[in-house]
Amino acid sequence: MDLSRRDIFKIGGKLLLLASAGATLDEILGAAPPSEAYRMADHWWGMIIDIDKCIGCGSCVRACAQENQVPAGFFRTWVERYQVEEGKQPLVDSPNGAMDGFPPSKRTDLKSFFVPKLCNQCASSPCVQVCPVGATFVSPDGVVLVDETYCLGCRYCVQACPYGCRYLHPQKRTVDKCTLCYHRITKGLTTACCENCPTGARQLVDFKNPKDPVHEFLRNNKVEVLKPYMATQAKVYYKDLDGAVR
Amino acid sequence: MLLGGVVVFLAIRAVVVPKDFGKFGHYRPGALETISTRSIAYAGHEQCLQCHDQEAKVHGGGMHAKVSCETCHGPLAKHTDDPTANVPKLPDVANLCRRCHEKDAAKPKGFHQVDTLAHSPGMLCNSCHQPHNPQL
Fold it and tell me: Could you say which of B21, B34, B107 has the minimum Cβ distance to residue A55?
């Protein structure tokens, strides 16, 4: 058979079209679930954080570390304490990620509050965009995950994340991050940090569930995401976020 | 020559790229199953209440009602799998209560806080307060 370059490109183009059509069909019909009862297409996960309820106890940090075997000195979630004086740079501390809480501050002359941090589960995530091998991705239910078997450990994503939420696992030598406890939420449980927050400052939310309290929360409160100017479509919403928070 | 190159490329690609790669996007969908099938460490509050109904009654009517059992007692999924083989330890009260209730200017104003050194130096909180249903 005599094939010209034009023929080869024609056949290649058709194959490419067929492949992309297949992927789109899967997305429309709803992705194959990780378990029988769970349908990814029915969920779009995120979190709401009420800063005024956070007491900086570090229960979330400890729970996350226990649930996900996070190595010592690294954090998938952490808590920062902001102490803001008018006209000055805010003082920010987070001793050991707040694993053991905070040493008490008696500076009542400053505006002080705690800010829990974690992966913002961006729908348009810079970390996903820079991964050269497709090891990090946004799942069909809106969680940014890392495929350990594909990750090269190049750390482009660590640099790309505007929120500093990724690290190179010291033993595995692959990138690690908050999975929004994907192994829990796909079983109908909440995340370890939300489960163990004693004041309910953090709550897992499903934007696709019309009965989820998040809809009322967003309707009745002033909320903001971190670094909105990065246009990452972050899905972690903070109630009454102060302008000093970065 | 070109055709040969394409054939070799497609043959290598067929071997190294998983069949379902690209099903949902530019990634391996098998990773979703790998991540979602990991085991849990925290069983969840509801699991504890199924057996510990006495504690549930005391705890449920107090100021700590919304605090999950495992927040103080640690991860207990293994305990729920086999209650006799995996017995939880009692919490380290000297540090546990302080983490939440030590007075700090950054804590919300309405939250119960105490300067532990001035309040009860050297004493454990549960000498006076019942942790499952604390009274002020």
Answer: B107
CB A143 within 8 A of CB A180: yes
Which residues does chain B have within 8 Å of residue A137's beta carbon, measured at their own beta carbons? 25-27, 31
User: What order of strands is seen across the sheet that includes strand A77-84?
Assistant: A91-93, A77-84, A111-118
Q: Do B40 and A8 touch (CB under 8 A)?
A: no
User: CA-CA distance, A135 to B96, in Å (whole number)?
Assistant: 39
Over chain A (246 residues), the average pLDDT of each successive run of 10 is 59 54 43 70 98 97 98 98 95 97 92 98 97 96 97 97 98 98 97 98 97 96 96 97 93
Q: Best residue in B2, B7, B8, B42 to probe A by mutation, most A CBs within 10 Å?
A: B42
Distance CA A246, CA A227 (A): 7
Nearest-CB residue to B68 (from A66, A136, A196):
A196
- Name the DSSP letter for residue A87: T
Per the listing, tokens 């008490």 go with: A104
Give CA–CA dist A153/A150, Å, rounded.
Answer: 9
Residue A91, strand partner residues: A83
Nearest residue, CB atoms, B40 vs list A3, A147, A184: A184
What are the structure tokens assigned to A81, written together?
Answer: 């304490």
The residue among B90, B133, B39, B62 whose CA lies nearest residue A192 is B39
Q: Chain A residues with CB inside 8 Å of B115's CB?
A: 104
Q: What are the extents of the domains in chain A?
A: 1-31, 44-239
DSSP B48: H
Q: What is the pLDDT of residue B16?
A: 87
DSSP A243: T
At B9, the amino acid letter reads: F
The dihedral through the CA atoms of A34, A37, A43, A46 has a sign that is negative
Write down the CATH number for the domain with range A44-239.
3.30.70.20
CB-based contact A55 B32, cutoff 8 Å: no
pTM of the model: 0.87
